[in-house]
Amino acid sequence: MDYRVLVLKQILSKNNFFQFFCYTEFFITFATAKPNNGTLAEWLGNGLQNRVQRFESARYLRRRSSNRNSFFRLRYLPLNYTAKADSRFAARRKTEKQIKDMAKNATTHEEEKDLENLQSALSSTESFIEKNQKVLTIILCAILLIIAVWLLVENLYVLPKEDKANELIVAGQTYFQNGDYETAVNGDSISFDGFIAINKEYGFTKAGNLAAAYAGLAYYKMGNYDMALEYLNKFNGKDDVMKYTILGTIGDCYAQKGDAKKAVEYFLKAAKSDNILVAPVYKVKAGVAYESLGEYGKALDLYNEVKKDATPAQRGIPEVDDIDKYITSATIKNGK
Asked: Which residues contact 294 (CB under 8 A, 6 or more apart)?
């Protein structure tokens, strides 16, 4: 009997069109081939047995898969493939899929929660604006009105006054530099009204604020320490040298009045200046005030600090040039 007939009988005995389809490739292959070794029956039998084993493995996987097309992908598996191995891989794939699904669901849940919170916040804001629309409109208009008024005042009143005060203070600075402190303070009765008048009329300007400082310094030079304190305390500037000079002069006023504790307080404030020409002067003055209080140890600490931080740029400053004398004097007094 022709081996092709044997193949067809074997296929049709399965009585299954699906299996027939699977064996069609086998039939075509053997229908056009000839055996190389052994008899035709042996060759045909071995090939058919191998093909059946492959089909049984593929049929099992087809039952396990929800995708019918997977049969065509898996029907060529090795003969040593088993259902047990398939169950392990399937369990692993299922676990990995569950982990990915859980992570995706968690991320989605967090995003939904954030979106809900954002929507809730926006809804609350919109609700607040709707309920208080009239009040908010009034507040906004008031703010805009204040800004507009300030700009008008700044440009139409403050700036012109600033320019005028700057013109007037120049004459007073000239009197001050020449040592004519009385005229600098009270004016010359001709064209200059004096620092006090400038401060009174233009005190809200920078030049008017500076006029108060000059008036205080002039009063200190004239020995009127109470008036000096009154005007020095009016000054409120940001310039480093001027700011700490004013603080130091306030300390000088208290020292002249015999209030050493107050003097130390202001001298130490002035000594915080970053200017290397100002700081050592008031450290030494604070040390002298400490000596007047009998606190020689604190005085020595300040003197030694000045000596340690001394630089060539500070030469010519009496307090720095004579620092060894201050140290020797305080050491002797401290040893008694």
From this structure: none
* pLDDT above 90 as % of the chain: 36
pLDDT on residue 307: 93
| Owner of token pair 């100002």 | 278
Cβ atoms within 10 A of the Cβ of 313, count? Answer: 10
Closest by Cα among 66, 49, 59 to 19: 59
DSSP letter at 312?
A: G
Over the chain, what is the mean pLDDT?
Answer: 75
Two tokens, residue 157: 């009143």
pLDDT tens track for 86-143: 555 555 555 656 666 666 565 566 666 776 776 676 677 767 777 788 887 888 899 9
pLDDT at 208 over 80: yes
Say which residue the tokens 């003969």 belong to.
79
Nearest-angstrom CA–CA distance, 302 and 315: 18
pTM above 0.85, yes or no: no
Rounded Cα distance, 90 and 237, in Å: 81
Residues 267, 248 contacting (CB under 8 angstroms): yes
CB 21 within 8 A of CB 41: no
- Tell me the backbone φ, ψ of residue 238, rounded to 5 degrees: -105, -10
Residue 68 contacts residue 62 (beta carbons within 8 Å): yes
Question: 57-85 burial, b if ≥16 CB within 10 A, otherwise e?
Answer: bbbbbbeeeeeeeebeebbeeeeebeeee
Structure tokens at 258: 């015999």
The answer to whether the CB of 223 falls within 8 A of the CB of 244 is no
